[in-house]
Amino acid sequence: MSMEMVARQQMFRRSHGTEDRGSFSWATARRVLAFARPHRRKLAGFLVLSVATAVLAVATPILAGRVVDEIIAGSSSRTIVLLASAIAVVAVVDAGAGLLMRWFSSRIGEGLILDLRTTVFDHVQRMPVAFFTRTRTGALVSRLNNDVIGAQRAFSDTLSGVVGNLVMLVLTLGVMLRISWLVTVLALAMLPVFVIPARRMGNRLAGIQREAADHNAAMGNQMTERFSAPGATLVKLFGRPDQESAEFAGRARRVADIGVKTAMVQTTFVTSLTLVSALAVAVVYGVGGVGALRGSLEAGAVVTLSLLLARLYAPLTALANARVEVMSALVSFERVFEVLDLEPMISEPDEPRALPEGPLAIEFDDVRFAYPSADKVSLASLEDVAVLDTRGGEEVLHGISFTAEPGQMVAMVGSSGAGKSTIAQLVPRLYDVDAGAVRLSGVDVRDLTAADLRGAVGVVTQDGHLFHDSIRGNLALARPEATDAELWEALERSRLADLIRSLPDGLDTVVGERGYRLSGGERQRLTIARLLLKRPRVVILDEATASLDSTSEAAVTAALGEALDGRTALVIAHRLSTVRAADLILVIEAGEIVERGTHGELLAAGGRYAELYRTQFAEDAAVG
Fold first, then answer.
1. 283-297 b/e with 16+ CB inside 10 Å = b?
2. What does the DSSP 8-state code read for residue 514?
3. Which of 59-68, 79-88, 211-220, 370-379 shows the lowest per-residue confidence on average (mean pLDDT)?
4. 275 versus 96: which is more confidently predicted?
5. CA distances (Å), 178 to each of 114, 173, 185, in order?
6. Could you tell me if residue 590 is inside a domain?
7. Are strands 592-597 and 584-589 parallel, antiparallel or unpaired?
8. What is the mean pLDDT of residues 529-554?
9. What stretches of 480-519 show up as alpha helix (H) in DSSP?
10. 421, 591 in Cβ contact below 8 A?
11. Residue 173: pLDDT above 50?
12. Do 305 and 397 fall into the same domain?
């Protein structure tokens, strides 16, 4: 490897190192080794090849020096050919070893990335909803991408580099000292001229690279927010496009300026170090040449020393920066482990129970609940804050008790923020209760497997969330094995089949981000079709028609009739007209049930429900 290549590599590693490298942690190292254990055989082969290539790198200069000596000594052509053949064999073996090393490196690195990514992905999927409501998606994705790749380099680059460079350094230094200790010492004396500028210039470059990374991250966040359908709509309605453009252009211009500055600093640095390497070679040829003329050195030894010089400087420089690379890799591992160390608040039961057959009852037994505080479900680094919010842990549900008998519809009404959605979220275990119990026909939901609970409970929310996928793909979330006939049946029952048939791609029509290519009513009916396809025994409707116009509400209400038929239902309603037929209506205020009864009973009581009904009736009359 040339001195120029070494300079460029070390400058890149210094400038792209982790800013806060901290101190070495044996605990982290042990966890890293645990992840590496499945790859230990490949790692062993990789390290053996690293040692072999280091030996081969030293062998070539020695053989080259022997060729020069044999030529000067007037040896036979057969000897010269044999030495040249040996150099060729070394080159072929070195090339083969390099290819094999690359195979080992890629298998180890990609295997480690696979293990880390799947482990983090599976772990994050088990986190409670509170985790996702607090975490910046971009920061979480970065852990799965940048930090995982940074951790992978610990094995594919750093480990092999340290081992190979140590072997090469020992062999090269031994051979050079044996040939001429004076030339070796003089060559080493120039090493500080090589290493010290690398560290100082690298630190300077690291600062401006971090600034560029910050600007790039800010531009990425701006594009992510502004290019989404809701974000673009918000900018068009309330934003200032000229200011948005100027802000983006300012950041992009600063990144461009930093790019020019970085290129000039790197070029200046590499040029300087190339000059240093040339001077070092001049020292070898000058001092060694004089020694050869005086008879204290062979001419071939001078050639060997000059060729070994790069093999001496390269490992010395790399090892001087090895701590930086090791600590950077450990920081990446620590950032990955930081996510893995967040304990999911919802866990699978040790001894799960089975649900009885047929329609299920929903039972709330003196349920008390407080949303978890940030320190239990999140990380400051994932929220992009210095200190986590200390709020949370205050009880929001106070002794909630009621029963929805099999096949009944229980409606919840009340002011915004009263706790209706919180109650609904406890049934599918988006959160766990702090006291009391939520049961399905006598079985505590905490004693059910996640698969059994998902199969039994279906939810339709107000926003009707859809993935950027086809209609088929969004429906298949409920039952991946469903046939096209079953998909069309669900669409028929949700009053959406005619619309889907009119689309050019039918079931393969892509709905867009969050389903924005469909109207609000169409999105809701598609989520209801998904619910029908799932065939749950318990249905939860969280204000499924609250934001729809009258026409869409009528279509969705008809589809909901299909969804609720024969099923136990828990319905959160904003419009009281939609819950008149409920078997039981619960009035929720400040986390408590303040009234319960049928529509007629609650109107006759003249309490909070009657007040809400009169207010809404008056508003509807005024609008009409």
1. bbbebbeebbeeeeb
2. G
3. 211-220
4. 96
5. 47, 8, 12
6. yes
7. antiparallel
8. 74
9. 484-493, 497-502
10. no
11. yes
12. no
Same-domain status, 584 and 553 = yes
CA distance 287 to 282: 8
Q: Which of 234, 237, 313 is nearest to 280 (CA)?
A: 313
250 plus 144 within the same structural domain = yes
Greater confidence (371 vs 445) lies with 445
Residues 306 and 387 occupy one common structural domain: no
Total domains in the fold of the chain:
2
Measured distance CA(247)–CA(252) in Å, rounded: 9
Cα angle 16, 18, 24 (rounded to 5 degrees) comes to 135
User: The domain that contains 499 carries what CATH number?
Assistant: 3.40.50.300
Strands 568-572, 538-542: pairing kind: parallel
Please provide the average confidence, as pLDDT, over all residues in the chain.
Answer: 80
Domain of 593 in residue numbering reads as: 362-623
CA angle, 97 as apex, 92 and 98 as ends, to 5°? 95
Same domain, 383 and 333: no
Tell me the CATH number at 195: 1.20.1560.10
Whether 305 and 371 map to the same domain: the answer is no
pLDDT band per the 50, 70, 90 thresholds, residue 368: very high
Of 284, 310, 340, which closes a domain?
340
Better-predicted residue by pLDDT, 272 or 432: 432
Residues 73 and 67 sit within 8 Å (Cβ to Cβ): no
Q: With respect to residue 36, please indicate whether it lies within any of the assigned structural domains.
A: yes
Residue 175 lies in a domain: yes
- Which residue from 480, 476, 478, 528 is spatially nearest to 507, judged by alpha carbons? 476
The 10 Å Cβ neighbour count of residue 323 is 12
Question: Which segment of 99-108, 198-207, 231-240, 280-289 scores lowest on mean pLDDT?
Answer: 198-207
Considering only CA atoms, which of 204, 196, 219, 77 is closest in space to residue 138? 219
Strand partners, 410: 570, 584
Q: Look at the block and give the residue holding tokens 């136990």.
A: 568
Write out the two tokens for 484.
Answer: 């096209």
Average pLDDT over residues 389-408: 85
Do 82 and 158 belong together in one domain? yes
Query: How much is the pLDDT for 122?
Result: 87
What's the token pair of residue 498?
Answer: 């005619």
Specify the length of the chain in residues: 624
More confident residue, 191 or 250: 250
Distances (CA, A) of 431 to 185, 313, 428: 69, 59, 8
Establish if 600 belongs to a structural domain: yes
